[in-house]
Every structure is written in C-alpha cells, then in structure tokens.
Amino acid sequence: MRGICKLCGIDRELRNSHAIPDSIFNVIFKENSGKAILLTVDGRKIDYTSDSLDTKQLCDICEKKLNHSYEKYSINLLRNSYRNVSKESEGINFSEVDVEKFMKFILAIYWRAAVSEHESYRGAVMHEELLYKNGAEKLRLCLLENSKIPASLFSVKIRRLRDLSGSFSLQTLKNLIVTPFHRPYGKDEKVSVNFVIEGFYISVIMPALSDKERRKDMVLYAKGNQFTAGYVDALSIPELKETIRVMGLKIRMGHSNVGS
Ligand SMILES: [Zn+2]
C-alpha cells in the first residue's frame, strides 16, 4: 500500500509498522507458542494475542532508521546484553549508557502509538499544552533527524516491575505487554502515558518536569550516561492492579501456554 509516511512525510510504499517493536512481541511469541499476554487498560481488555498491533504507518527507510538509530541498542540494553548493568537495593542501575538514544527509543514508541490508528493505542494521548505547542511535530522532527529532544515537553521515567505478593515471577511480568494508558501526573495537571515492555514500567510525562521535580523523581537525563530503574510493585499501580489479578486467573487457567 502506498501512502504518506508519517515520519518523513513522503509518498512511498508503506510497511507494517509497530509502535511497540515487533522484536519485543516476537520473543514472547516464540516462548509462548505464538501468544503474548496483552493488556489494554482503557478498554479493560486482557488477552492472549498473536496480533503485534501493526498498521501501515511508515516507509521502509524510516522503519529501518528507527530500528538502527534507537531500537536495537535500547532493546539490548533492556535485555541485559551489556555488562554495565548492576542490581542495587533500590533498582537496576545502567551505567555508561547512551541515555539520549534510549530516551529516543521510548519517545519513538510513544510517538508512533500517538499517531497510530490501531485501537490498542488509543491511550497514547498528547497533553493539551503540547498540542498547542506543536509537540507532535517537534517530536517527529527529533526522531527523523536524530536531533535534540524537546526537553521542555517530555520527561521519561523507567521502573522495574516486580510483584511483592509473589504471585508472578519476573518472567511472567516480562511476558506481559501493557499498551499505553494515561493518567494525571503530579499536582499541576501534567499527564503521563505509561506502558509495560520487557518487565519495565515506562512513563512519558508531559510537559517535562521542572528541575526541582526531577531531583525528587528518578527521570532520565538525556545528557547523562547512567540511570536507575527503581523497583515498583506492579500491584501498587491502580490501573494494573485489577487487570493483573484477572490476568493471574487466566495464567493459572492456561499456564501451559505462558511462562510462569
Ligand atoms: Zn518515511
């Protein structure tokens, strides 16, 4: 199918594009007879899926660009493929890493979800202030040109999920994909869009946090070379709590399909 590529804006043959990279789905599919557990919070939908949520969105050149520029490196990072990862009492510390590249990987997922027509990505909203400030366009250019992140518009935060109730192993949480959902953030009408991949709970906060707020909150610094994914109990996140309990029943009922 030909069409206008959403990233470069050129009329070209469009590929099946994934906001959440298909390599994340593929590993789960491989380990679980072709099914991933997909949680769509807004629609209260929890299911095993073999759909990797693709839509015709980007041209081949742009797909490859996002893959080579941001995805490959970042997915390896999340999968502990580098030696500079250490488990600390407060979370997992990643040192000597390209934080800016990693943030662009997160923002590319968010941006593609926000401009996707797939119903599972409806939760990837954009904050009103960003719409007013042309945030989507600024983000598109940043990803297309691999240029500076519009730092006043977005903060990015990552945490490692765990289940303190002991019902779910890390492997089960790693087999879970939660599509983006949004909620208010902090006291001054910010919004976070959140999703879960590879056992990490990731938030894109809009507009960006102030310097003072950043010091309190563990957000990523594009200019830095390390970050910590602090631990968070999956059941302490209200949107996940109920759905994860239901998922637990499903896992028990069909546990031969899903890693436990
Ligand atoms: Zn393109």
What does this structure look like?
Helix content is 34%, strand content 28%. With 260 residues, it is of the alpha+beta class. It has one domain. The strands form 2 sheets. The chain has a 9-stranded mixed sheet with strand order 4-3-9-10-11-8-12-7-6. Strands 1-2-5 form a 3-stranded antiparallel sheet. Helix 2 (60-78) crosses helix 3 (99-114) and helix 3 (99-114) crosses helix 5. Residues 253-260 have low confidence and may be disordered. The structure holds zinc ion (ZN).
Number of domains: 1
Find the count of extended strands (DSSP E, 2+ residues).
12
Shape: globular
Strand order in space, largest sheet: 4-3-9-10-11-8-12-7-6
Rg for CA atoms: 18 Å
Mean pLDDT: 85
Which regions contain 5 or more consecutive residues with pLDDT less than 50?
253-260
Distance between the termini: 40 Å
Spell out which ligands are present: zinc ion
Strand content: 25-35%
Please give the largest β-sheet: 9 strands, mixed
Tally of individual helices: 8
What is the structure about, briefly put?
The chain has 260 residues and is an alpha+beta fold. The protein has helices spanning 22-31, 60-78, 99-114, 128-132, 135-145, 170-174, 211-216, 238-253, and strands spanning 2-4, 11-17, 36-40, 45-49, 55-59, 85-87, 91-95, 155-162, 176-185, 190-197, 200-206, 226-233. The protein contains eight helices and twelve strands.
